[in-house]
Amino acid sequence: MSASAAVPTHAHAPAVTAAELLDFALRTAADPAVIDSLPLDPAGRTWIRLDGPAGSEAWVIGWPPGTGTGWHDHAASRGAFATARGRLTENSLAARIPSEGWRSLEVAPGVDRSRSLGPGSGRAFGEHHVHEVLNASPDEPAISVHAYYPPLPLIRRYSRTGSVLTLEHIERPEDWQ
Questions:
Q1: Per residue in 155-166, pLDDT tens?
Q2: What CATH number did the domain enclosing 162 receive?
Q3: For range 109-130, the mean pLDDT
Q4: In degrees, to the nearest 5, what angle opens at C-alpha 127 toward C-alphas 132 and 158?
Q5: Of the candidates 162, 64, 31, 48, the residue with the CA atom closest to the CA atom of residue 105
Q6: In a domain, 5, yes or no
Q7: Strands 155-161 and 71-73: what pairing?
């Protein structure tokens, strides 16, 4: 096998930009037929998988009140998400962290960011973006559309205590599909 044959096929495909993923997420979030197809569960998050643009993967996710993702990243995938219904909060770090070789890191002052995303608003992000997404509402569900390219190879999950971020475990696609 030659070295070029070992490269994943998406490495030679035209890259989908974070802006293109955001455009897809916003258009899909505005499509009532897609959003209405998601079964909501008041006890836990629900999701359906979609095909995104140019081989990307996408998800429609339902968020019961008070639910969230916890701190995580999407490894080498860039991504975007858009709120279709309700309001989501994204807490993120405005600093790139190393993708390997650490177990705990202290987050420097001033790198925490928070944004609120209501219906029709969205957010794009690059590789190794560390964030958490929450539906902080005590009584209203939320629905959002997420897209990633390349398709998610893994998700790293973190705990956070004060300024310390600790890698807890790594999920692979078979854990969520």
A1: 999 999 999 999
A2: 2.60.120.10
A3: 96
A4: 35
A5: 162
A6: no
A7: antiparallel
